[in-house]
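Hi everyone,

Forwarding the result from last night's run.
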Amino acid sequence: MTPAIKTKFTYLDYEKLKSFDVEKFQSIQPFPWCNLQGFLTELGFRKLHESFPSLALFEEHSNIERGYGQRPHNRYYLAYESSIYHQSGQQKGVVKQSELPAAWQLFLTELTTNPQYRSFICAVFGVSDYRVRLAWHVGFNGCEVSPHVDSPDKIGTHILYFNTSADWSEDWGGSTLVLDGKQTAAQNPDYKDFTDVSAIRIMDNYSFLFKNQTDAWHGVEPLSCPEGSYRRLFNIIFEFPPASKSEASLSRMKSLLPSSLRTLAKNVIRK
């Protein structure tokens, strides 16, 4: 009898990355986005879901002022190694790798060191380099993420959701909403100011990958979950490295162009 061949356990599903259609992703309007199912292996998702960091490590964000008069994004927040909300040395809401559950330590090592994932992200976003920032978010009843676009320092974001149909109900909300057809010039619009809304699936190993552009409007309507239930996610944020500020400026300028001109610019650059 031929012995079974054992395959190395991984958290990332590399076959999923190989089959990803980069050109199709980059052509999506109003901005490139994808609601991936199974980015993590089945066992990898289960391990990370079961050992999601303890709420005791998080800090609560309550009524923090946002730009343009946007409503605050209340939540529990945990940053990996350093927080954009604190000066260096302050440890509230910050976790080091050694303080995380073992599964998360192994996952973060794979995520940040695997060359295949780095090549995938560079190809998807059309960049030669990036730096990564990591954070966990936990939402509770009443929490929302009002319609917004991200900081121009961000290339894009990959949001991994850690809820299942056993611990979350669609009736409670929580879907990230992709927004299009903005009908106002205001930078603090509400959902009624958009003509098209697409809801992202967030349960059972779904994730949301999107490119940051000036028209990449998205948000989350107020949660209506019962006490003790939480919307849980892990944010992988890709930022332009300091040496690539010109690349960031070019990317933002291109995002301002009509879609027909963006295609023309892309073809010119390829030539």
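The longest helix spans residues 102-113.

Cheers,
N.
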